[in-house]
Every structure is written in C-alpha cells, then in structure tokens.
Amino acid sequence: MPAFKTLDHLTDISGKRVLVRVDLNVPVADGKVTDKTRIERVAPTILELSNKGAKVILLAHFGRPKGEPVADMSLSPIVSSVESVLGHPVHFASDAIGSQAADAVAKMNNGDILLLENTRFHKGEEKNDAAFVAELAKNGDIYVNDAFSAAHRAHASTEGLARHLPAYAGRTMQAELEALEKGLGAPARPVVAIVGGAKVSSKIDLLMNLVKKVDALVIGGGMANTFLAARGTLVGKSLCEHDLAETAKQIMIEAATAGCAIVLPEDGVVAREFKANADNEVVDINDIPEDAMVLDVGPKSVEAIKGWISRAETLVWNGPLGAFEIAPFDTATVAAAQHAAECTRNGKLVSVAGGGDTVAALNHAGVADDFTYISTAGGAFLEWMEGKVLPGVAILHEQK
C-alpha cells in the first residue's frame, strides 16, 4: 500500500462535496485549448468520483494573474474542452470562494461536476493564506489532490486544504508517485539516468542528486561539452559553459565517490552551422574541429548508451542527447529512446521520463506510449529528481 491515502480509501461518498485540485493550465490560442493532455490526465479521477455520486468541485489555476482577476486568464473558456474530454456536463462558478462559489455548490446534485474560477485570482492562493484556505474549505467535505505538476508549490489549493479536510491522492497523483518511487525511490537496480539538454547550470542540483542514487549517469546534449571540456577535451565552437568546469569536475568526483559511472560521448556529429540538414560528419570526441560544433552524439556513443540501457532494470530520463529539433541531429535521441521502449515492452525495463523537451523528444521518436511512465509535470518532476521535498506530496504522506 502507498504511504498516502488514495481514492481506494474513499467509501460511501455519495452526496459528499469533494474539492479536487487539478491541473488545467493548458495551452490556449484564440480562446481554444490546443492540447488537452492535462485534462485527459485528470479525467479518470473526476469521473470516478462523479460516478460514485460525489459532488465534484474542481480547483485549478491558469497563468500568473498575480492575485487579481484577469479576463484572459479565466477558466471559463476551458469548460467546453473539459466537457468534451469527460463526456459530462461541467458547471462553472465565476469565483473560487464567496457567495458565487457557495451558491453554485449548493445547487449541485449528486454526480455533478463544477469548475470554480482561477484560484490565483486571489492573493491568498500563492501565499497559502489561512483565511483563504478556510474559505475554500467551506465548500468541501473531502480534499483530493490530482495535480502533481503543482505539488512543488505550497499554495492554498495544493497544500493548505490538506490541513483542513481529509486528504487523498487522485489517480493521476497516485500513478505519478508510484512511478517515481519505482524510478528513484526504491528502484530495481541497476539504475541508469540519461540527462541531456543545453546547460549544466540549469541542472546542477539534479546531477548532484542523481550521482548519489543511480549506478550510471549518461550525460548528453550541450551539457556533455562542459564535462568534456572540464577533463581537457577541446570542443571547438560547441555550446559549452567553460565557467562551470570546476562544477563539472566536482560532480564527477561525487560520482566516483558514490560508485556512479559517468558516461560521456565517445564520438560526436559535428557541423559548422546550426540548421536542419547542415553538412555534418562523425568525429572522435578527441578530434572535434576548431570551427565545428557538436550537435549530436555519434554512433559509437549510441551503441554504448544502448548497452547501458540493456543492462539496466530502471531508466530515468530527462533531456535529449542532441539537437533533436532539427534533422539529422535527432538520430541519437531517437535511437536510444526506441531501444529503451523496446526493453520496456519486453518487460526488462522500468522507464520513467519527464520534462518538456523530453516529452517532445519521446513523442518525436514515436515511443511515448511505450515508456512505463512519462511525467508532464515539468518543474515538479525536476524538483523531485533533484531530491527536493514537494509540499503538496509531503502533506499527503503526513495525513496518512
């Protein structure tokens, strides 16, 4: 059993008012939702509660209105998309608290679904203000958090409510936490992490945490150049944070102390221009031309990475291995992702991935559905990988 309460612990909730924190911070263009993924992720929780006769009251934020009502950040235009995903009518209240919210809740029948207005229209939301939390709590008997993506924020609707009402994890939150536990909490070993992306500076905490938890750390993308340069390799005109050489050295020292293998590229695909289908060649990592830049890891490196994936029981992935947005510099990322997917399909690997570029890269490789779990949580996923405490998760553990 998980160390927190889930919907499995909720019985006889017919007629109960259930406040459900969801993530509806979806992309919108010209008043229309352009990607319904986050709505689809929370649909199982909403429908399960509705089907059990609960009065389902949705709490969510949208954008950064800074504690004031902003017309362009209203949740009202999202209602139709929520209805289309759920296949169920969704009512809307033009405030998250006060008489408008209370009146809308009072009119609900068992099984009804109500979306309250953007919680961030009130300053008390991001301040986790006790008075605002109390106002939100007036409209509920039970609190369910199904927004892992907002769990790294100690806000009124993500953390404060769990101190006022019986608190439970929704199905998406539960799936995320169970997947992350398999990824780094109590993983099957060996554990291999792939970390890519442009800069070491944005992932120092992440790398420092991972070397203490995984058996091998594969470093790709632009950040690999910083590690290569730190050990004395000339990287030409490649993206490289030379000022972080000492940081890179320290990470390698920490890895050696912890018994974590650092896997750097053995060869690279270099070009003189950063554009699609630029003239390119494969070179040994020690022979990078002065006037060229590394835009992807080479075939030797890909085979080495695939070897590490094959030996692993658990894979955690954040960031592409090269400039996957432009061909042919997506080759290594696609090859490694497809190999990880094959190992997962064959039941040999638990694969957990997350981060915006990572999700895009795995979709590009056509394997997103084959990984054990892909997190769309962004900042919360990264903070979890960094080993930080997520307030919205910690409070659920406390409530058990």
From TrEMBL:
(2R)-3-phosphoglycerate binds at residues 38, 120, 153. The keyword Phosphoprotein does not apply. The keyword Kinase applies. Transmembrane segments: none annotated. InterPro entries: Phosphoglycerate_kinase (IPR001576), Phosphoglycerate_kinase_CS (IPR015911), Phosphoglycerate_kinase_N (IPR015824), Phosphoglycerate_kinase_sf (IPR036043). SUPFAM superfamilies: Phosphoglycerate kinase. Pathway: Carbohydrate degradation; glycolysis; pyruvate from D-glyceraldehyde 3-phosphate: step 2/5. Its main location: cytoplasm. One of its GO terms (molecular function) is ADP binding. Substrate binds at residues 23-25, 38, 61-64, 120, 153. It catalyses: (2R)-3-phosphoglycerate + ATP = (2R)-3-phospho-glyceroyl phosphate + ADP. GO terms for biological process: gluconeogenesis; glycolytic process. GO terms for cellular component: cytosol. ATP binds at residues 203, 325, 355-358. Coiled coil: none annotated. Keywords: ATP-binding, Cytoplasm, Glycolysis, Kinase, Nucleotide-binding, Transferase. PANTHER family: PHOSPHOGLYCERATE KINASE, PHOSPHOGLYCERATE KINASE 1, CHLOROPLASTIC-RELATED. Monomer. This is Phosphoglycerate kinase. It comes from Rhizobium skierniewicense.
